[in-house]
Every structure is written in C-alpha cells, then in structure tokens.
User: Fold this.
Amino acid sequence: MINSSYSLQNDPHCATKRSLLLWQRLGLQDYIPIWNAMQNFTKDRTAITPNELWTLEHCPIYTLGQAGRSEHLLNPKTIPVIKTDRGGQVTYHGPGQIIAYVLYDLRRDGMGVKTLVHYLEQAVIELLATENIVAMRKPKMPGVYVGACKIASVGLRIKNGCSLHGISLNCSMDLTPFQNINPCGYPSLIMTQVVDLKATSVDCKRLEWQLAMQIATQMQANLVPVN
Assistant:
C-alpha cells in the first residue's frame, strides 16, 4: 500500500535533504492501518530517509487527541472512536475530506513545530484563495477559518524530532457527524467546507493535488510523486 523505501543517497532531484518531499496519494483508507504505517515509518527512518507527504481520505471515524476529553463526544452513534497520539481534541474524518499527513524530520532541517503548523495553515489559506475563498487563522485556535466557521484542522505529534499526522481540509463531505461532537473541543464551533462556499462544482482530486503543491511551496521543497 505504502512505498517508503526511497533514500536520499544519490537522488537526482535533491541537492539538499530539505529540498525533497516525496508525495504518496493513497485514496480512501481506514484510519488504523495508516496510523500504524506513520508510526512504523517514523520508527524506522534514518538520517537519510527523505521527508514524505501522504494525501488521502479516511473512512468515517472520530479521533480523540492525546489530551482529548470524552465529554466532547456528544453522540458518536455508530461511527467508531479512536484514541490517537496527535495533539488536539476530537475531530471527524470521512470521505470528501482531504487529509495531508506530513512525515518530516524537523530536527534535521532545523524547523520548529510552530513553523510547521504555520506552513500547513498557510498552504490551505493560499489554496482557498485560488478558489476565491478568503480564509484566515484565529489566535490560539489552530486551523483555518472562513469567517466564524472552521474549514481545516491541524493535529500533529512530534517523535524523535519528526512529525506525524498533519492537516485535514473539508472539501465535499457529509458534515453531519461534526454535529455529534464539540469539534476541536469548542461547543459552538461550526464546520464548513469548500463545496458550500462555491457557486460552481468542486473537484476534490484537483484540490488534493493543489494542496500538496502548496505544502511543498511553503516548505521550500521539491514535490516528487512516487505513485
């Protein structure tokens, strides 16, 4: 499913370790196998393992972050709930939501976690601007917002100086499951998505590609598709 055998040694695309970002498009995936794959990738990576970007969608799932409080799960009904190792509270993943997992060696490249969060948020802001959607950050509320509504959520884990998890962008999905939680721990927070903010149809596959490009641009990396 996931090909992570690439090495930085003798790579023709790469003058420095920081300039290469391998991109894998994984389609619709269950949460736990991808989570396990991220953990294994991080555990097995070495000083010459290139950074990777995985874009995908998840089957319906609620995830609780490390500090996630169960009282924010109001009525999960039949949707599974997973306690995961990312930061943040509770969120929902489902088809039609673009997820970008960034497996990045921060320590090797001298990047702080706040900078990585900024890059991911800015990538979404720039992408939405190309769709004529004005998006912004909010103080002390990670993620990306359109007016009072949240359109993208950030959750990361840093292990041995390397990042796991990433950012999710609501593209064209069923937002109803968000009504059964306090999204990101905020009872009054309303979620929105690209399709509800556009007068024309939305191509989520195109936006997935554009998001990957925007993330690479923010990180000053060469995006190299590997599948």
